[in-house]
Amino acid sequence: MRVILRTDVDLVGKRGDLVDVSDGHARNHLIPKGLAMRATADAEAQAEQMRKAREVRDTKAIDAAQAVATALVPQTIHITAKAGETGHLFGAVHETEIAAAVLAQTEIELDKKIIIIDEPIKTVGTHYVMAKVHQEVQFPITIEVEAL
């Protein structure tokens, strides 16, 4: 059955896409939950408008994400933490602390969920973490951890 998606559906498509799905999936899941509607001539015109609106929204989101990336990449974010004489921290630096430090030092608000730490930060020194602001925009943030 051909349906037009009203919202993004994992493994099926994005809002406004015209997709072929099994009859059972459409009748039992997508249409009753309001995730899709049957594809008719009028609905296809509406779907085209949905796709155009999505493209405009995505372009704006990518531009905003790239602006954040260009502002943060050249900067070094300084974080102080309690450390022993050997330079090992008494805890670890987490995403929440990094997001708070970025906000305090650059006035750019990042959600802690977009910060990706490969290995726990447990030593004093320079570390790099990734920030995935958008699906297509990912950039490194330089973190300088200093002993308190």
Helix-strand blueprint:
Blueprint: E1 2-5, E2 18-20, H1 23-30, E3 36-38, H2 41-72, E4 76-81, E5 88-93, H3 95-106, E6 115-116, E7 121-123, E8 125-134, E9 137-147
Parallel strand pairs: 4-9
Antiparallel strand pairs: 1-2, 1-3, 5-7, 6-8, 8-9
- Helical residue percent band: 25-40%
Q: Which segments are poorly predicted (pLDDT under 50) over 5 or more consecutive residues? A: none
The mean pLDDT is: 93
Number of strands: 9
Shape by Cα distribution: elongated
What is the strand content? 25-35%
Please give the CATH architecture of the largest domain. Answer: Roll
Spell the H/E element sequence.
EEHEHEEHEEEE
Please report the distance between the alpha carbons of the first and last residues.
63 Å
Largest sheet: 4 strands, mixed
In terms of quaternary structure, the protein is single chain
Taken together, the total number of domains comes to 2
CATH fold assignment of the largest domain? Ribosomal Protein L9, domain 2
Walk across the major sheet and give the strand order: 4-9-8-6
Task: State the helix count.
Answer: 3
Radius of gyration: 22 Å
Question: Which class do the helix and strand fractions yield?
Answer: alpha+beta
> Mind telling me the CATH superfamily name of the largest domain?
Ribosomal protein L9, C-terminal domain
CATH class of the largest domain: Alpha Beta
Describe this entry's structure for a reader:
This protein has about 150 residues and is α+β, with helices and mostly antiparallel strands. The chain has 2 domains: about 1-65, Ribosomal Protein L9, domain 1 (3-Layer(aba) Sandwich); about 75-145, Roll (Ribosomal Protein L9, domain 2), CATH 3.10.430. About 35% of the residues lie in helices and about 30% in strands. It has 3 helices and 9 strands, in the order E-E-H-E-H-E-E-H-E-E-E-E. The chain has helices at about 25-30, 40-70, 95-105, and strands at about 1-5, 20, 35-40, 75-80, 90-95, 115, 120-125, 125-135, 135-145. The chain has a 4-stranded mixed β-sheet. The longest helix has about 30 residues, at about 40-70. It is elongated. The N and C termini lie far apart (about 65 Å).
